[in-house]
Amino acid sequence: QVQLVESGGGSVQAGGSLRLSCSASGFIDCRYSLSWYRQAPGKEREFVSGFNHGGSISYADSVKGRFTISRDASQNTVYLQMNDLKPEDTAMYYCKSGCGTWGQGTQVTVSS
Description:
Shape: globular
Strand order of the largest sheet: 2-10-9-4-5-6
Number of strands: 10
Order of helices and strands: EEEEEEEEEE
Distance between the termini: 40 Å
Largest sheet: 6 strands, mixed
Helix content: under 10%
Number of helices: 0
Structural class: mainly beta
């Protein structure tokens, strides 16, 4: 199994930036393809960005050019740098492992 802990959420004004972190521990194979999802109130959880098992990166169209995913050399921590935040980015952000484990989430609130 793998354990995921997100951090870095907060409240910012539109145009601001935040960097989210997801620290993974446990079964190493589950740590290779970590992804970020988000869920706004009343909406379904949606993919934001992630690494696949081969290391390729993908982004949702809504965040391309504004968000950047990266990870440290140990591949134990994945970051999501979020720039030019918009009110529609307001959501609970979750980290998901390649084995399907979810973290507890971190709240991002963007005010106009």
